[in-house]
Structure formats: C-alpha cells, structure tokens
DNA sequence: CCGACGCGTCGGGAAAGGTTGACGCGTCGG
DNA sequence: CCGACGCGTCAACCTTTCCCGACGCGTCGG
C-alpha cells in the first residue's frame, strides 16, 4: 500500500474517476466507459486509489462497486492551507485570523 | 511547459522545496542543502516547478534566487473544493470559527 | 451444469521520471 | 586577467508508471 495521496492525484484518469464517484457508487466497467481505456487499466487505477484510501470497494454479485472515500483528501487540503495566503487576498484575511486564533 | 500542477506536487522533494520557499527567496545551492541530493537533481526539480508556474527565478550575480509563485495552487484548491462536503473536517472547523466570531 | 459475463492480476513493452557525473557558461575576487 | 564559484544542461542509467493482451476465478442465466 502506497498511501501516497499526492501521487494518486497526479494522474488525470484517477482524478476523473474520483469525480465520477462523487455522484455515487459505480462498477468498474461503468467507470471504464468514461475513457478510451481498457478495463485492466481502469482496474489498476482503482487499485492505486484504493491503496491511497480514496476509494472503498463493495463486491455485489459479479459486479464490484466503488465508493468515494474522500477523507485522505484532507491531507492535501492541510498541505495546501499554508500557501493560501500567498495567492488569495481574500483568504489571506481569514488565514491571518486563523493564525491569531491558534496563538491565543 | 507542462503546466501540470498535480504532477509537480506528486514529488515529495518538490513539495518540500515549495515549503522552503514560503519563508522567502532562496538560491539553488541553499535549497540543495536541505536534502541528501545533488545540485543537478534539485535544479531539475526546480525546472519542473518553473514549468508548472509555481516558481519564478531571479538571476542575481552568479546566484539564482527562486521565488514562490503560489497562484497555480488555486487549481488544486478548486479541484479539491467539490470534495470538501464529503469529509467535512475543515469545513466544520471554519464553521465553528465563524460562529465564534459572530457571537463576539 | 455450462457458457457468458464482470472482475482482478500477471507478464511484458513502451514511455516517463529521478539521479548522477561531466561539461560549458556567466560572474565575482584577487 | 585568471582561477574559483554557482548555475543550468546534457547523456546515460536505473526505476517507476502506464497500458495492453491473456489468463483464471467467482457469479449469474438458461
């Protein structure tokens, strides 16, 4: 298991897979229909997402449904947060406020 | 220019480089001192960051200073935002903070 | 019970990424 | 003017990633 969330998000196919799963659970073949990709390729991308904890699988009959598991994305959010003040004036005020809160 | 921000962030060395640049501009050799890496490796990581627009270079004498350019990180933030409602943690913290502010 | 279906996984080949040593270029100090 | 310094870049190598065809396994329908 790699648990490398940033690495999992580096691939555009995997990002689109997560976007598709936002609307609800889907089967592998259903997801594969979204791309010009073979089913094995999609299956392996899903394995990477599973390794990063971004997806949970639910076998049902001969299908296998994948569910979005967004919690690990918090790691990305946490990493991103200290940078927010450098590109968004509006968020900068909030960022400063949070700093003020933390140091109280 | 690759402009692939997600790909640029996939490497832990590049993430640490950005973290280091948050504190101010630094020279290549200075940044290389932060890692067990040769200077060429760091130089090429910086080239990737430059390709993604995450870094701006300022030649000064025989040094070359790199500045953080956080604007492209907004793309990551924008992609991440629709997922926030699925893990809620930070959203809840912000909500709590706003409530506290209102009642002051 | 048997063939079709939906899967994951494995082996291999192509492509991309990471690191290194060697080189060349501009810059500074003596 | 010359040697040392700080850089970027290149060729080469190794590793990783990405994709496919082929296979095997469990499941469903007739």
From TrEMBL, chains A, B:
Keyword DNA-binding assigned: yes
Name under which the protein is recorded: Winged helix-turn-helix transcriptional regulator
SMART domains: HTH_ARSR (SM00418)
Family annotation (PANTHER family): TRANSCRIPTIONAL REGULATOR, ARSR FAMILY, TRANSCRIPTIONAL REPRESSOR SDPR
Residue intervals of the HTH arsR-type domain: 1-88
GO MF annotations, alphabetized: DNA binding; DNA-binding transcription factor activity
Species this chain originates from: Actinospica acidithermotolerans
Coiled-coil boundaries: none
Pfam families, alphabetized: HTH_5
InterPro entries the UniProt entry points to: ArsR-like_HTH, HTH_ArsR_DNA-bd_dom, HTH_MetalResp_TranReg, WH-like_DNA-bd_sf, WH_DNA-bd_sf
PROSITE patterns (alphabetical): HTH_ARSR_2 (PS50987)
UniProt xrefs under NCBIfam families: HTH_metalloreg (NF033788)
Alphabetized UniProt keyword annotations: DNA-binding, Transcription, Transcription regulation
Transmembrane segments: none
């Amino acid at each position: 298991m790699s648990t490398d969330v940033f690495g999992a998000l580096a691939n555009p196919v995997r990002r689109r897979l997560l976007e598709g799963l936002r609307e609800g659970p889907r089967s592998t073949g259903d997801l594969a229909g979204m791309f010009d990709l073979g089913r094995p390729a999609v299956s392996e991308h899903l394995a990477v997402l599973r390794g990063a904890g971004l997806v949970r699988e639910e076998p049902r009959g001969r299908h296998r449904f994948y569910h979005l598991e967004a919690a690990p994305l918090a790691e990305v959010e946490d990493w991103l947060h200290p940078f927010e003040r450098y590109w968004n004036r509006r968020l900068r005020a909030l960022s400063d406020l949070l700093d003020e809160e933390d140091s109280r």
